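Fold this complex.
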Amino acid sequence: MGAKRIPVAVLGATGSVGQRFVQLLADHPWFELAALAASERRAGERYGDAVRWVLDAPLPAAAAATLLCEATPAIDVPLVFSALSADVAGPIEEAFARAGKLVVSNASSHRMRRDVPLLVPEVNADHLALLERQDYPQGGGIVTNPNCSTIGLALALAPLERRFGVRGLHVVTLQAISGAGLGLPGMDLVDNVVPFIGGEEEKLASETRKILGRLQGGEVRESEVVVSAQCNRVPVLDGHTECVSLRLARPATRDELLAAWREFRAEPQELALPSAPARPVVYLDDPAAPQPRKHRDLERGMATVVGRLQPCPLHDWRFVLLSHNTLRGAAGGALLAAELAVARGRVPR
Amino acid sequence: MGAKRIPVAVLGATGSVGQRFVQLLADHPWFELAALAASERRAGERYGDAVRWVLDAPLPAAAAATLLCEATPAIDVPLVFSALSADVAGPIEEAFARAGKLVVSNASSHRMRRDVPLLVPEVNADHLALLERQDYPQGGGIVTNPNCSTIGLALALAPLERRFGVRGLHVVTLQAISGAGLGLPGMDLVDNVVPFIGGEEEKLASETRKILGRLQGGEVRESEVVVSAQCNRVPVLDGHTECVSLRLARPATRDELLAAWREFRAEPQELALPSAPARPVVYLDDPAAPQPRKHRDLERGMATVVGRLQPCPLHDWRFVLLSHNTLRGAAGGALLAAELAVARGRVPR
Amino acid sequence: MGAKRIPVAVLGATGSVGQRFVQLLADHPWFELAALAASERRAGERYGDAVRWVLDAPLPAAAAATLLCEATPAIDVPLVFSALSADVAGPIEEAFARAGKLVVSNASSHRMRRDVPLLVPEVNADHLALLERQDYPQGGGIVTNPNCSTIGLALALAPLERRFGVRGLHVVTLQAISGAGLGLPGMDLVDNVVPFIGGEEEKLASETRKILGRLQGGEVRESEVVVSAQCNRVPVLDGHTECVSLRLARPATRDELLAAWREFRAEPQELALPSAPARPVVYLDDPAAPQPRKHRDLERGMATVVGRLQPCPLHDWRFVLLSHNTLRGAAGGALLAAELAVARGRVPR
Amino acid sequence: MGAKRIPVAVLGATGSVGQRFVQLLADHPWFELAALAASERRAGERYGDAVRWVLDAPLPAAAAATLLCEATPAIDVPLVFSALSADVAGPIEEAFARAGKLVVSNASSHRMRRDVPLLVPEVNADHLALLERQDYPQGGGIVTNPNCSTIGLALALAPLERRFGVRGLHVVTLQAISGAGLGLPGMDLVDNVVPFIGGEEEKLASETRKILGRLQGGEVRESEVVVSAQCNRVPVLDGHTECVSLRLARPATRDELLAAWREFRAEPQELALPSAPARPVVYLDDPAAPQPRKHRDLERGMATVVGRLQPCPLHDWRFVLLSHNTLRGAAGGALLAAELAVARGRVPR
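Structure:
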């Protein structure tokens, strides 16, 4: 990359995912935070005044001083990160794409569209080709980032899928509260667990099938992996834990599985994308790992951390994974997707 | 029952399970708390001074004033509840049995002995017959209470097993910290989950097979149900949540499953044992149930609370259960087992 | 009281304080829950569908089936409990008073009005006389309940004020999250304390002065007690803890202070009002008491629980108090105030 | 400092403070971790096997591989950090001092000895002169680090004491659980606050008087500041919050107080000691600051973070402070004290 950075905008900048975008973009080598957009009634306010900053890292001074604008395609940048909520994201993101901008979205609105890549750059970088099928002007397009609980799972599955095939799995999640945005009542999470997250169990199944799908004739043929998910909210700040029991297509030894994870490298690592983890999957050989507070920040929160691999008497193998839900699972994952798009020349410089 | 109550002792009375025994026995219609035993160095101390009381309910005054004694068979009662830790329980419980006392134990030491009942009174009351095989003097014997995470599962499985057969299951637990006794460091459970509880995953599998086993020729033939368990500790005070996906031997509709749970009644209900829940399994038709803080005390903490029954794309059905780990899962379950033994004439009055 | 109960309404019934009213009124000997009011857009919905029930106790079935109405004086009851938020409570409560209804309000809107009683029934029952000064039709009037952190403090101070005089005090609160309603982000209260609650420090000072004030010539002359408060939000579900150091007007021994609390009884106890605690102040002689989870429910959550009375090297004495913020500190306190008004003939039967 | 580092030992290396020493010494520019000592029965074990590592930062590999030794003066290092518990620290630390080693201790055993400095390097560096009064061989001596809740308070008070004099104060602490070591039961800190920490209230008073005392004629004359402390344990991992109301000897404006904190620099800053914070006191001008999770790591956990300065109607001023209890309040503070001793030539190189 040359010295000149690409100006980018964040839509939905005041929410919790929006804040992560602002944090990660404060010091990004390729991207320059040029605009922060929020709802109409906030336009004109200083970001620092409008936001209820919840991250531990301090609010970057430059962002704090930025005046919020409305989320309209008048924003003059070629690349837009969307942290909009699903109930408004659809048409706004479309408008930006029609205006010739590449939208990398964390919202669920367009994820399952047949012509929209649902991208985990280490897993299905080739799905970027779906952009060709989108009917937007030059430079315009929509790329989506999967659901926070899906990304960590997809990263752990991909190396196994390639070498041994994954037939099906039962996964139970213990999800952090940051994924619920600012609105989750604190009262529900003192001395409690909530065994329900609206739509999450369905997303884990359908998104995993799309991500692991194969590109054939310009279309993604969904994987036939059967995913049964049960999702819980637990009193953890960041980091989704997922307990997985899975059935493989071909037998594998413990060492082969560990090797598949250990040796897993893909395009983001080869291209040394700025947000790419050196190791997309990190296995910890400690019976009490992974733990959210202790391991969520490994590889700057961009890896899936796996532990407790054991033979499963019911299926073939079981293990526990941990993924940072607002880094890899949201803003960080979207940044990595955007970096891939840039490296592949999908964004005009 | 007549007016005269049976004098009982609690071994290991200062620990967290011991405290639950003391609480539940303070006002029991059949049993009278006659002795509290702890380690030798504490003998002679007032219970109220020796105990670090952790329950929300106040320490009963009569128990507080009781002087602790040593855990030796000199204690003159026919029925003994053991809340000893597994590293010391074995020989002490044996000594009591050899002295002609019935020991109802919450410790794991004797659970898997072929001649010792592992009792969930609604599920395998007939296993009490194993007492005949024990070689102790008149009145002596050992009955055990399963592990806290096993009991809740066994109660939910039993009605399904009877009507449809259970082939196998994957269960992921989210276990409360009270089950870890007083020694669990608080630091591990702020903003964290620990995906490891020593020995728990094995116990869930082996104990479930024994509990669901059939008594044949005076022996228990273990069930062949395949149980794969992954166990986590979460920041909840009381109440183990368990996410279950299971395969049945015979097909069943949702209504049939719900009916099996709803109609489930067994000997404790028929005998109206003092600690028996009116409904051993309570199904809640609320997408966000069961939740530990809100539902653990249903049926005085003696029921398994089930919710979120859904078809499972991988197996047949999945659901979430909740069981109070120190009531039904420990002291309360042991009391119910003792009540069954008394009702069946196993304890001299 | 005769057998006929007084029909009452709850305004703001879906919020967390409104839920407590619904819970406490489900089985009240004097009052009958006749109407539940919420915002206009919810009118017509079943309460059970509209509410996001956060209490551990189950939602009463009769209330669940009640259809929500709008908060207008057309509701035909003589007594109204207001759990409205302060930004809307003012004019709505006025409208009910003008329509000849007695409003007992938990909102702050009218608390500091010179003609409105700010009532803690054990402390300033005589302030009810302020109702004479209100210019509403027969039966109409407004009575307010103090802020949740003020009530517990006022109960602990009143007996000391009467016997020894209280000159001033520094109080630091550790407040539960239920007091923040449903909107407090859970993220702020994992591994954290927030040293700020908007307006709370001011309310503790000004409300305490009014409550401890004397009725003279039909007016309340505020007490001159100096109250300096620092308020914190802590990860506790229910129960405000307050650490107090105070200066007395006249010297007192430890025994005299304990006696003042122990012997404290007032009109609610003499009248045996249904919600009155037998002991308004309970002192616990345990170095580690009071603790929210263990002691908040003493006297059904209607007492101030005090402990750790010690000489203070800076002032005269220091102690720790605990008060249940949504029972005594909100709905329960308002019910007690209403019961006092009824007992004094302020509500037409 | 030259390139050669001073070999040091940590006594009590497996506890939570010992772990912080190990973490901070892993990469220290002046000190080289040469020995890790624990109880006799652990001697010979690998540190990595013996320790139950609770820190979020990973256990340094070199330390993990170190074999534990016994805590005897045979350890051949000139400088020793003691993280021993108070019940054993006294005689062991003495033995090291008599063997000609400088002991920097976090234990309370020797803190109040008239010939032992109780050091907060920014506040009373001159107290190091007390070492002259200790009767140990050349190189031998004992320096102590104050209690974790005292250090943060002393740092906030010192600049005010110098400019305006501090007469007295009431302080209420909300202390993190890491300060309680590994032994605090998790059950006490779910949905709860414990208003009692054994000995803490007394230490805060007596240690503050010693730290703020003046060295006169080779002795420390204790300050006459009156400190009244009430101490609570709250469910926070790291970071003690303290709410302070204080009376000054001379009047000061808000700006003067802020300037006193802002301009506060002392010997550790002038000498640029490796562990010294650039700003010993950081004032945050945000109504909701300081918060433990968000601000405890400012200045690498070595500053006292202050906020919410307001006039106090009872005394003169009130504010809230935050101090990282296991960094500045324990291992980090002890390291800074040792660095000061080295810079002053008290440790042979």
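Chain C touches chain A at residues 16, 52, 54, 177-178, 180, 182-191, 235-237 (CB under 8 Å).
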